[in-house]
Amino acid sequence: MDKAAGYTFILGSILMVVLMLIPYEEANATSLDWDIRLEALMSNWNFVATIWRFELTAAIALAWSSFHFAKENSSWYLVAIAHVIYIVMYGVMLAGYPEARTQEGYNTLFQIALWIFSVANLLWVLGIGLIVSQYSGWLKYVGFITTSILSLTMIGVFFRLLTFEDVYYVMPLVIVVYLLNIIIGAKYVKVLNERRTS
Q1: Would you tell me how many other CB atoms lie within 10 Å of the CB of residue 69?
Q2: CA of 173: how far to CAs of 36, 57, 106, 117, 153, in Å?
Q3: What CA–CA distance (Å, rounded) separates 106 from 100?
Q4: How many whole angstroms separate alpha carbon 8 and alpha carbon 58?
Q5: Distance of alpha carbon 110 from alpha carbon 165, whole angstroms
């Protein structure tokens, strides 16, 4: 099960990176009017909902494997809890967005999803930041810089010092952290293989 958790974490992270590179900006862009966003979302619902279902699957995989890792390092609880919160966010979007028929209804669901996203991201990057701090070399420094910027951004949103529009400027860093996830997962599997051969 240890190795299965490692491979699950790697595959879940790869899936997240791939899905985040698929463009569907009109459904998410806060700079557009709500009716344009809603029309874009509904006209492409099958496509967008499929992406979200795969992201939900990846979040479940990452939550499960992170809880498994937490048995050895409690920092993983932050990562695991963050992905459980992501699961709630996808529930709001997949179940709620198709039922939104008014500006107030859509905006309420959209803001709820964004707040859940921000809280989950904060917990996730804090957890990964603590984990990479235990490594050495470039992984430690890249991880520290990336997670610090993301953490400060999410804290800024939480205290209303920044807006959700500002979050989109740091979204490439989210992909970087998922790439760090892949490396961390690979290191975990490597350590397990070394233990079994020694």
Answers
A1: 22
A2: 27, 21, 28, 15, 11
A3: 5
A4: 9
A5: 13
pLDDT in tens, 14-55: 999 999 998 765 555 555 576 777 777 778 888 889 999 999
Q: Provide the sign of the torsion angle of the four alpha carbons 100, 103, 109, 113, taken in this order.
A: positive
- In contact, 174 and 151? CB cutoff 8 Å: no
DSSP assignment, residue 49? H
Residue pair 53/99 in contact by the 8 Å Cβ criterion: no
Provide the whole-model pTM: 0.90
Count, residues in the chain: 198
Expressed in percent and rounded to 5, the helix, strand and coil fractions of the chain are 85, 0, 15
Specify the amino acid at residue 196.
Answer: R
12 within 8 A of 54, measured Cβ to Cβ: no
